[in-house]
Design goal:
Radius of gyration: 20 Å
Largest sheet: 4 strands, mixed
Order of helices and strands: HEHHHHHHEEEHHHHHHHHH
Shape: globular
Structural class: mainly alpha
Number of domains: 2
Number of strands: 4
Number of helices: 16
Strand order of the largest sheet: 1-2-4-3
Helix content: 55-70%
Length: 328
């Protein structure tokens, strides 16, 4: 199942994010629930156990941009979605009953976040927001001019209404950054693990600034208590990935050693190392970005420049980020 690291998928996703819509920051935005409501119709008509044919004809066929964006690397197929629903229909029932109404009621939060993003990233286009039901493997992604949130994952991870609303606010900010990022000058093969954590670190930094909340309190608490050790672990895994590439591996042709090293840091939702929070690399990336911006004479302009980052190694060097163990 696609919980494990897939750098090829990640590369394809990142390539799709190089174009964004030209929507104005002054526009009133709303959370589009059209695709989600189509899923609910299919789910209810089949007593919570729709088969692949019902999902294909009622949900995937003639889908809106939300489902179209979510299908290639997340929903994958009607068969995959049907299997996932059959494994945990209660997760979808809760998402319908709890998360979908909250999403429909999130317009004020969305517009508040978008107003703040307009201040942090002036002149940048803001994407449409769609909510959908996926295959239980992604809380959100972005594509050209759109961000898409997976309701069954958000509802499964968060327990209270307050937590769900906070998760929506975080995704509104984080995924918007991905819709703004331009990777046309970025060579991911040079230092891919560093590049990926910085890509996510930029998005988490902006989400932190826009919401005033840590993107993951659990991850923040865990990582901040072992920052120097975590950095040493990251540097070791980063070196492994670079060694594998030097020996002929690539993002399209990965080795198990390369996947294992990178998989401790990114794209490991529900598959993180034992005792670790998922996607610890996001936190590492945000620390580097914070340090980098602290070094800049014009941090607001530098943040805008990071949306089209071309040299992750130079960003790390300029950040001077290098936490060391405390002396006894």
């Amino acid at each position: 199942m696609p919980y494990s690291l897939n750098l090829k998928v990640a590369l394809a996703t990142l390539a799709a994010l190089t174009t964004a819509s030209t929507a104005s920051a002054e526009t009133d935005f709303e959370v589009n629930v059209t695709d989600a409501n189509r899923f609910v119709e299919v789910f209810e008509a089949n007593n919570g156990m729709p088969d692949a044919d019902a999902l294909q004809s009622g949900y995937l066929d003639n889908a809106g941009i939300g489902v179209r964006t979510f299908t290639p690397n997340r929903i994958v197929s009607a068969e995959n979605l049907a299997e996932r629903i059959s494994q945990d229909p209660d997760a979808y029932r809760r998402a319908i009953d709890v998360c979908l109404p909250i999403a429909q009621d999130s317009q004020d939060d969305l517009n508040t976040i978008y107003a703040r993003l307009g201040q942090l990233l002036p002149g940048q286009p803001l994407p449409e927001v769609h909510v959908v039901f996926g295959a239980g493997n992604s809380g959100g992604t972005a594509g050209p001019g759109v961000q898409v949130l997976g309701l069954e994952v958000i509802c499964d991870v968060q327990e209270t209404e307050a937590d769900i609303r906070a998760a929506f606010r975080m995704f509104f900010a984080h995924e918007t950054v991905h819709a703004m990022q331009d990777f046309s000058r970025l060579d991911l093969s040079q230092d891919p693990l560093l590049a990926f954590v910085l890509i996510e670190g930029i998005a988490d930094y902006v989400a932190w600034q826009a919401t005033g909340e840590a993107p993951s309190i659990e991850r923040d608490q865990w990582a901040s208590q072992r920052e120097a050790w975590l950095w040493a672990e990251f540097q070791a895994d980063r070196q492994i990935v670079q060694e594998e590439i030097a020996q002929g591996a690539s993002l399209e042709n990965r080795t198990p050693r390369m996947n294992a090293a990178a998989g401790r840091w990114i794209q490991n939702f529900r598959n993180a190392p034992e005792g670790w929070p998922h996607e610890a690399g996001y936190w590492v990336g945000r620390q580097i970005i914070t340090a980098y911006l602290n070094q800049q004479e014009a941090p607001a302009e530098a943040l805008l420049d990071l949306l089209s980052m071309s040299d992750p190694i130079a960003v790390l060097a300029a950040s001077e980020y290098d936490p060391q163990p405390a002396e006894n």
